[in-house]
Each structure stands twice: as structure tokens, then as C-alpha cells.
Amino acid sequence: MILPSPNPYAALLLEKILMYLSRSKADGYIMPIKPSTLIKEANEEVREIPTTSWLGSPTKWVTERADVQSRLWTIVQIAISKWRIYEEVFGEDEDLMMSLAMALDSDYYWAEFVNIEHVGKWAYYTIKKVDDSLDSLAMKIQQKDNRTELMVSNRWFKDANLIIGIEMPESYMEQGIKIPVNSSEYVKLNGLSNITVSILTPKTRTLIKKPIRIWV
Asked: Is the distance from CB of 63 to CB of 83 less than 8 angstroms?
């Protein structure tokens, strides 16, 4: 909640925490240990984690202020769906994962501390970045001498992995393409008419651009 940039107090807070821990250790109040030490000494293995929280119920995050909380969860669900599309097409993005993590911080959904501004800001940032990346993909079709040529361009700063779906009156075909940064790839189709061309994600085949239809 306090570490992400641009909070100028994060470094000071960490310094104070480490100082207090060091002093408490010297005074004999605590004995700091590494997580790896606990793992080595553990004798039991957790095989199942209950769906409820340490509170015993999700009500604090879901129903105590349902009018507000439900709207926040709906917004974040949209952000998650957008993020999944981005990862399919462009791969992992640390900045995008951080913004989504900030939007999902459960403390901001807690009934007494609901923070619409925080959740909305980070969810909107996630959604906008994905929308901007998808808007950077362009598709253009040209017909010359009984030949159809499809040009797909990528103006985003990462390579794009896509599926081109081509629907014809009696058949359907797909072709996978990878478009490097700031470049275009071409798909040539000979002797085709009455076609619909779509850009899809490579795994879930999610439609990410409005299809182009050519009727001859």
C-alpha cells in the first residue's frame, strides 16, 4: 500500500522499520529469522487453503457495503479480463501486473476503509494501458487482380502474437503471426471474396479488433 512509486516516504519507512527491528533484537525482545529457516524446520505441509479468510468470512470485502464493493469488484474484473488479453498478445508486463495488484489490494475493499478513488485509479490505469496497446494494432485489406492481401501493423513497444481468423462462405481458417515492434506483416489470400477477417488472441481466441468484412 505504501511502497509503490511515487510515494517519497517509502524509503524512510523501511529504514525506520529495519532500525526498530535491529534495536528490538539487540534488546532481546525479538529474534528475526529468515522464511527459509521456518521452511526447513516445518514438520507439516498445508495441502488445502480454505476459500474464506482469516476472518472466517468474506463479508468485510463483499457484502457489508455491497452497494460500493460490488461496483469496485466489477471494475476490477474488467481490468483482470483486459490484463489476460494483454498477456496473451504481448507477454508479461511488470508495470501492468503492479497496477493490477494495486487495484486488487484487499484493504481498499474492507467495509470501513473502502477507497473508491484508489481502486478506480489503478483499475482504470490497467484498462487504459491494455486498450492503448490493442489500439496500436491495425488491420488493412487490399484487393488486387483477384488477390486479397491483409496487412497487420503493430505500433506497440512489444512484439505481438496474434491469430488471424478468415471466415469464408463455406470454410474457416486461421493463421498465427508474430509482428515485431513498429512493423507490419502481410497475409496473401488468392481468389477469395465474401470474407470476414478477425484478429484474435493466440490461446483463448478472444476477438480483439472489430472484424473487417468484404462482400463482392
From this structure: no
User: What single string gives the DSSP state of each residue in 22-51?
Assistant: HHHHHTTS-----HHHHHHH---------S
Q: Residue 163 has which C-alpha cell?
A: 491469430
Q: Distance (Å, rounded) from C-alpha 99 to C-alpha 92?
A: 13
Closest to 68 (Cα-Cα) out of 12, 144, 120: 120
Which of 149, 133, 143 has the alpha carbon at shortest distance from 186?
Answer: 149
Q: Are 180 and 157 in contact (CB under 8 A)?
A: no
Half-sphere exposure of 90 (CA within 13 A, CB side): 26
First and final CA of the chain: distance in angstroms? 57
Give 122-161 pLDDT, tens digit per residue: 999 999 999 999 999 999 887 767 777 889 999 999 999 9
State the DSSP H helix or E strand holding residue 188, giving kind and residue range, or none if neither: strand 183-190
Please write the tens of the pLDDT for every residue from 26-35.
Answer: 999 999 888 8
- CA–CA distance, 126 with 98 (Å, rounded to integer): 9
Separation in Å, CA 7 to CA 1, 13, 177 = 10, 11, 41
